[in-house]
Amino acid sequence: MTSGKAAKANAARVAEERRRKIAEQRAAEARRERRRRIVIWTTSVVAVAAVGGGIAAVVIANKPKSAPAIAGVVSYKNLTRNHVTHSVKYAQTPPVGGDHNPTWLNCGIYDKPVPNENAVHDLEHGAVWITYQPNLPAAQVAALKKTVGSQTYLDLSPYPGLPSPVVVSAWGKQLKLKSATDPRLAKFIAAYKQGPQTPEPGAPCTGGTGTPTG
């Protein structure tokens, strides 16, 4: 009888020990599973952050840079862009945008006035148009021609009735200057030639109409 009780007690101890070990194993497995999930979650968060950061970096890299502030630059918005074959009455002198001829002006230096409607098409393509009063001293005109040089997307031409000795224009942007040597001219060209205001950046500035002298 005593041996039978001892056997039962021993069996109970064995069973209890087995349950304890099973419980410990289950607890250990649960801890491992929690750690695994934490690692997966952390890795996913880092990966998403990295991808998001990469996307943000790409977006920031490809975002057009805003032009720097240049004293005296006047901006115009809501400019129409229709192609027309008739003459257009523009609100600015010279125009900074609006309806224009379907054919653009070949960019370059002109010794005579050029049609507004063709020059405005150049502005739509990202060109900067430098205009000067016909009676501007020869030395000043020479300085303007030197500024243009062999650069692309630049137009230079005399303009009767100009409100200032020199006026430089881009699409929706204009700056009046008293001298061809004003340092703001170079800054304007750097900021707005194929600048962020350009409706059709990269569109051609050759193969149109007009024969520039330089």
Protein model, in words:
The chain is an alpha/beta fold and 214 residues long. The chain has helices at residues 2-62, 116-124, 138-148, 184-192; strands at 74-75, 108-109, 128-132, 154-158, 166-170, 173-177. It has a six-stranded mixed beta sheet, sandwiched between helices. Strand 5 (166-170) and strand 6 form a beta hairpin. The radius of gyration is 37 Å and the shape is rod-shaped. 26% of the residues are buried.
Fold topology:
Elements lengths: L1 H61 L11 E2 L32 E2 L6 H9 L3 E5 L5 H11 L5 E5 L7 E5 L2 E5 L6 H9 L22
Parallel strand pairs: 2-4, 3-4
Antiparallel strand pairs: 1-6, 3-5, 5-6
Helix content: 40-55%
* DSSP, total strands: 6
Instruction: List the strand order in the largest sheet.
Output: 1-6-5-3-4-2
The main pleated sheet reads as: 6 strands, mixed
Q: What general outline do the C-alpha atoms trace?
A: rod-shaped
Mean model confidence by pLDDT: 83
Please tally the helical runs, counting DSSP H or I stretches of 4 or more residues.
Answer: 4
Radius of gyration: 37 Å
> Beta-strand level of the residues, as a percent range?
5-15%
Q: How do the SSEs run, as a string of H and E? A: HEEHEHEEEH
The low-confidence parts are 44-64
Distance between the termini: 123 Å
Summing up helix and strand content along with how strands pair, one would put the structural category as: alpha/beta
